[in-house]
Amino acid sequence: MSSKKKETLLELKIGLTDYCNYQCIMCMQTAHKGIYGNPEIKVEPLHKDQKGYMSFELFEKIIDDISRIKYKFKSISLQWLGESMLHKDLLKMIEYILNKNEENTFFEELIFFTNASLLDEEKSERLSLLFEKYQRTTLIVVFSIDSASKETYLKIHNVDNFEKVNSNIVYFLNKTKRLKNIYRIYRFLVMPENSFEAEKFLNFWAGITLNEYQLTWNEEKNFDIEKARDIINFKRVYSDELLSVQRLHEEVIQRLGGEKSYFHSGDGERPPCAAPFRTPLVNWDGRLSVCYPDDRLELSLVTLEDNSFESLWFGDKAQKMRKDILNRDFDKYDRCQRCGNYGGFPLRQSEIKLYGFEIKS
């Protein structure tokens, strides 16, 4: 095997846990009680089995396995449905994966999502030292904030932590701003409960960053790495009500002076989705799915505990699913029929070729 790995758009998510210390109204953690707090609109609880934490031994096995394949990952995220800072081995896991990428041949970006409620001064200092040690890896930390006031924060997150979280984030910013390899994203998921605070949110974090920031409108990672390392992000929330959430998102973008974001309205023929080509997901118990919005693991390819990533991700079951998606046979998969994000992953020709499929003109 050549030491030069093939560049890809693969974005791997590893769910270290599906436990969370928050009960946010827009999250699948609470949707069984009622989506957006509405008890008349409920879905089944996450998974149909036990929640848990990934063992360090399983994490080590998975990282060792995927670091040996011939493809380089675009990004690896150490979070899925839960709050990873609840995991007792989080810092140990971060150091392990960064050490595996010391030559920058395993992946380009390490991404970490957090509500920042557990990001105390000690953790910020330890993370700062860790990130300084591995400066060849691009590090992206996404803070889920979604509010510009205590009242809205409490309504959305069901926790009275607004001031504590902002203080934790500002401390982390001050500890890491000297590092050139780290990007901090302050995220605002646009929804009816907070859209009126968009300008206030922008002004607050613009002030905190001393007006040295980038503004992005949808996917958190769509920013210029050559520009400011603080990013204020206004993202469309995932919802089955595609048109209503998109209209609200576009209204906020227009108010803040941005450009229209990419979106497929649901009219006409549904485009093939890039998720089975791009976004492998590993649950805390090792189960591999082809799509990170697959919150009940309906598209699981079984477990990495007893199988290699390459044998599953490029195996017959995954390839059949990709063929079906290219042929727009979404009705074969219940999860695809319920998707509230179709069109959110535009498929690229290089991804089609990677899996050996012909590109249709």
How do you describe this structure in short?
With 361 residues, the chain is α/β, with parallel strands linked by helices. 31% of the residues lie in helices and 16% in strands. The protein is globular, with a radius of gyration of 20 Å.
Write the layout of secondary structure elements.
Elements: E1 6-7, E2 11-14, H1 56-66, E3 71-77, H2 90-100, E4 107-114, H3 121-133, E5 138-144, H4 150-157, H5 162-176, E6 182-190, H6 198-208, E7 214-216, E8 230-236, H7 242-255, H8 275-278, E9 281-282, E10 287-289, E11 300-303, H9 309-313, H10 316-326, H11 334-337, H12 349-354
Parallel strand pairs: 1-3, 2-3, 2-9, 3-4, 4-5, 5-6, 6-8, 7-8
Antiparallel strand pairs: 9-10, 10-11
Structure description:
The chain has 361 residues and is of the alpha/beta class. It has a domain at 7-256: TIM Barrel (Alpha-Beta Barrel), CATH 3.20.20.70. Helices cover 31% and strands 16% of the residues. It is built from twelve helices and eleven strands. It has helices spanning 56-66, 90-100, 121-133, 150-157, 162-176, 198-208, 242-255, 275-278, 309-313, 316-326, 334-337, 349-354, and strands spanning 6-7, 11-14, 71-77, 107-114, 138-144, 182-190, 214-216, 230-236, 281-282, 287-289, 300-303. Strands 1, 2, 3, 4, 5, 6, 7, 8, 9, 10 and 11 form an eleven-stranded mixed beta sheet that branches. Helix 3 links the parallel strand 4 (107-114) and strand 5. Helix 1 runs parallel beside helix 2 (90-100).
